[in-house]
Design a protein that fits this description.
- The protein has about 90 residues and is mostly helical.
- It contains three helices and no strands.
- It has a domain of about 25 residues.
- The longest helix is centred in the C-terminal third of the chain and has 25 residues.
- The N and C termini lie far apart (about 65 Å).
């Protein structure tokens, strides 16, 4: 069986980029309570808890690592957006 390592790595990187993009879009649809208040939804925080539980069950899986990275980015994006809106 013949396999081209360069082609294989390109396919995996394209799949990862696609996965990151789709998961990031999914996270943007989730509701999260307003910063510094206890009112509202916690869907994004609940997603983080679910991913962390999956990491405990099956450690080292690339998908969960990517999900954690994307959740961190989404929290950061929302925090920066909030600070820019209310800094004036």
């Amino acid at each position: 069986m013949w396999t081209d390592p360069e082609l294989s790595s390109n396919i995996f990187s394209e799949v990862e980029v696609d996965f990151r993009e789709r998961y990031s879009n999914y996270l943007r649809t989730m509701k999260q309570r307003i910063y510094d208040t206890y009112l509202g939804f916690n869907e994004l925080d609940d997603e983080r808890k679910m991913v962390n539980q999956q990491v405990v069950r099956t450690p080292g899986r690339r998908g969960e690592i990517i999900k954690n990275e994307e959740i961190d980015k989404e929290f950061s994006r929302r925090y920066v957006e909030y600070k820019m809106d209310y800094s004036d």
